[in-house]
Amino acid sequence: MEIVHQLWERIRTGRKIVFLGVGSPLRADDSVGLYIVAQLEQDLTKTNADKYHFYLGESAPENFAGAIRNQAPTHVVVFDAANMEKAPGSFSLIEPEAITGIGFSTHMLPLNVLTDYLIKTCDCKIVIIGIQPKLLEFGYPMTSAIQMAADQFISEFSTSCSGES
Fold this sequence. Notes:
Blueprint: H1 2-11, E1 17-22, H2 32-48, E2 52-58, H3 65-71, E3 75-81, E4 91-94, H4 111-122, E5 125-131, H5 144-162
Parallel strand pairs: 1-2, 1-3, 3-5
Antiparallel strand pairs: 4-5
């Protein structure tokens, strides 16, 4: 996946990297960011627990702003379902300044408020990975198409990280 290469190029020199999953676990594919971060935590803490830190922000990721700031990360990677008008399961790297035009709809505060805060208080780089959902209805599990795309990303990204020098 090209997105794995793009993300790895952005964070490979980072000394401390925070992964933040955003979304509602009750709204089908909106939970994909949470799923990815939970799986990455299982994979990446086996090899480099001091470098990688993980937070499941759900619908109020701003509640973790203080904890993230206290980590003093060099990079924060945010995973979230985003309506980008692409095929379901598509991944895109979204620049922080561009997120106001993307459909992130299930947050208590707009995502750009959190990212602006982290940039100013941590002097870190923010990387946002949007995943196009297929279904956002309340009370449904993640669709198989989105889970398959997420699993492919997790596998390839974990392999990239395990090969770091």
